[in-house]
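note to self: dont lose this again. the chain is below, predicted strucutre after it. 80 aa total, dont forget to put it in the shared folder this time
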Amino acid sequence: MHEIALLKNLFRYLDREENLSSRRIKRIEVSLSELGGINEEHFRDSYKNLAAGTKWEALQIQIEKIPYGPELEITRLDFE
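---
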């Protein structure tokens, strides 16, 4: 499950960003490349399962599909 490794890294990144800013992240925007190996629906399902019971469970996620580029890229973080 490629998405699980990406999501674990994403959660570590979000933790680091919260610690650096001393604010809570409420929303994240990511882009997924059409040429990458990540299916949006599978990504959302994997996220839901992995985030269940964690502080990331209520995080709002906006996903944009792009024709080419990085497989997954964080394009925006919104803090409370």
